[in-house]
Structure formats: structure tokens, C-alpha cells
């Protein structure tokens, strides 16, 4: 397992960043490779919720394992090549701005276990791109 951490400061209040990041319909806006993201479990989004992320060549299932409004949420991949990987998003309010930190504890299966360093570099690149896109969208006022 490898840990990958990326952060960005967004010039928006933590509540706005939280709302944007926990709305699954925004996943394709911040990650150009995501074709679809949707909750598949009933009820409000929170601990125990399940969802899918569909990419061109792979569909991942995930489950929310931590959910502290406006502070932190974590999901775990429950299928696919990243099964067992945990992605955490931490939100820190500072003077009307938000420090958003994403941490991935990457586990890879099958062939990808052999090419672990490549997977880690790819996850880091995706993390940084996603956070930069979220910052751009939120600071432009185009989050709705």
C-alpha cells in the first residue's frame, strides 16, 4: 500500500466546498475521465452509502466509511483494480477559505500490484488534477 496526499486552498467557504465535493454529479466535472458517478444505495449520502464511478474501461463500486459534515469524508473502493483503496477528503476552514486535502491509501490488485510505482504516480496526477479542477470551478462561481 502507498499513501498519496495532495492539497489545495480554495477561496470559498468550507460549506460550499463540502457541498460541491459530496455531490456525486460533480465527479465528471472535476475528473474528465469519469463518465458517470451515482449513488446506488437509498437514502441520503453518508456512512454506508454505496456508489459507482464509471470510467471508459472500468467501473468501480465504492462505499462511504467516514462522513463528518464540513470536516471529512472517506470512501473505500469495493471492486475493480483499486479494491481496498481508501480516499479521504479533509476540509479545513481558514479565514473564509477552505484547505482541501485528499489522501489516498492505494492498494492495487492483480497486474497492477506489479506496477505499483506507476499506479501511485497516476493516482497523484489524478488527485492534483481533480483538486485543481474543483478549485477552478468553485472559484469561478460555476459550481451549481
| Uncertain runs | none
Share of helical residues: 25-40%
At CATH level 2, the architecture is 2-Layer Sandwich
- Name the structural class: alpha+beta
Strand order of the largest sheet: 1-7-6-5-4-3-2
Give me the strand/helix succession.
EHHEEEEEEHH
**Coarse shape:** globular
Task: Give the name of the CATH superfamily.
Answer: START domain
Instruction: Tell me the strand percentage band.
Output: 35-45%
Overall number of strands: 7
Quick one: biggest sheet? 7 strands, antiparallel
How many domains, as an integer? 1
Radius of gyration: 15 Å
CATH class: Alpha Beta
Discrete helix count: 4
Distance between the termini: 36 Å
